[in-house]
Amino acid sequence: MRRSPAVSTIQQHITQHAQTGSPRPTLDVDRSDAEYRTWLKEAVRKVQADANRSADTHLLRFPVPEQWGIDLYLKDESTHPTGSLKHRLARSLFLYGLCNGWIRPGRPVIEASSGSTAVSEAYFAKLIGVPFIAVMPRTTSAEKCRLIEFHGGRCHFVDDPRKMYEESAALAVETGGHYMDQFTYAERATDWRGNNNIAESIYRQLRLERYPEPAWIVATAGTGGTSATLARYVHYMQYDTRICVADPENSCFFEGWTTGEPDVTCDSGSRIEGIGRPRMEPSFVPGAIDRMMKVPDAASVAAVRALEHAIGRKAGGSTGTGLWGALKIVAEMVAEGRTGSVVTLLCDPGDRYLDKYYSDAWLTGQGLDITPYVTAIDSLLETGVWPG
């Protein structure tokens, strides 16, 4: 299905208005038909009802020596109905798209995603009865592809991750659907002032802990929306918490943040699914972030394996990236004699990556040696000293 000339003309007027700021011309087009408004109200109700049925996610403790006077937590986002942090984002994006009139009955929703967002968006698309197409790298884990299809979505693969954006936009035009564009809208679709967002949830769950206001929250960045929500909420609530973003290899967020260059790019895709981008995404808000870390991919894998050893839970590579950053901050606090709490995120379950981050054969194929990073984590937990 292609857009009609009338819709194309309207879109041209809207785009021109957005670019110039000039008054929008009057167009006598009635979009308030009763059938669509009935569908819209029901779709919004279903998405909000999903949130109402969902309990909060757990805040897990990572064991560190009591004498340090430091508490390390992981916000376990893997317990959402679709198994990842991206469930929150997908719900917000669907509500944003519905309430803006962008998502329409019978027309597909299209998303550029390396996996978890697409799984969650496929779930919400099925919930409200619209088709869903995920445009994703061909290297995306087989388990994520299976989950997208389980929820009724379709996978559309690209060989070059940098082509996901334009391929998604082209599919939206071709099908008359809506390109969700998480990388642009993630930071604005979520209400960062509260409304049970992830930041408000963390502080509520820490209320009875010995350090209820964390010294640091460590996030990772795919769209940048989560770090923006966390940082904005901290500033809005006037907390002293600092926000750190841990960035994997083959991602340009760290370089963009340190150089202040918004057009920084890199040539290859991230091996840590769900985070790391080849360009500075519009939803990444560098000015709100206090610190960034570049984390080797082998360190991310070592950290998720250390997590399983410590609490018996497998997690995805993005969790490892954030945990490595959090452990490094803990080591700095120990060295400086500071006490307090540090929070990072358990983003999604490790069973989606058994053929990657838990496979020694995959590590060998990628040329990754996790041994020195395993040794570093063991040394920290045994002696309180970060090697090197």
Automatic annotation (TrEMBL):
Domain Tryptophan synthase beta chain-like PALP: 57-348
Residue stretches of biased makeup (Low complexity): 9-20
InterPro entries linked: Cds1, Cys_Synth/Cystath_Beta-Synth, TrpB-like_PALP, TrpB-like_PALP_sf
Main location: cytoplasm
Keyword Ribonucleoprotein belongs to the record: no
GO-annotated cellular components: cytoplasm
Superkingdom of source: Bacteria
Sequence positions bearing N6-(pyridoxal phosphate)lysine: 86
Keyword Cytoplasm applies: yes
Compartments, record wording: Cytoplasm
GO molecular function annotation: lyase activity; pyridoxal phosphate binding
SUPFAM superfamilies recorded: Tryptophan synthase beta subunit-like PLP-dependent enzymes (SSF53686)
Pfam families per UniProt: PALP
Gene Ontology biological process terms in this record: L-cysteine catabolic process to pyruvate
Cofactor(s) required, per the database record: pyridoxal 5'-phosphate
Entry keywords, A to Z: Cytoplasm, Lyase, Pyridoxal phosphate
Record field: catalytic activity: L-cysteine + H2O = hydrogen sulfide + pyruvate + NH4(+) + H(+)
Chain residue ranges for the region called Disordered: 1-28
EC number annotated for this UniProt entry: 4.4.1.1
The family this protein is said to belong to: Belongs to the cysteine synthase/cystathionine beta-synthase family. Cds1 subfamily.
Function of the molecule: A cysteine desulfhydrase that generates hydrogen sulfide, H(2)S. The H(2)S produced by this enzyme stimulates respiration in M.tuberculosis, mediated primarily via cytochrome bd with a lesser contribution from cytochrome bc1/aa3. H(2)S modulates the balance between respiration and glycolysis, and also contributes to redox homeostasis. Probably eliminates toxic levels of Cys (which can induce oxidative stress).
Stated name of the protein: L-cysteine desulfhydrase Cds1
Gene: cds1
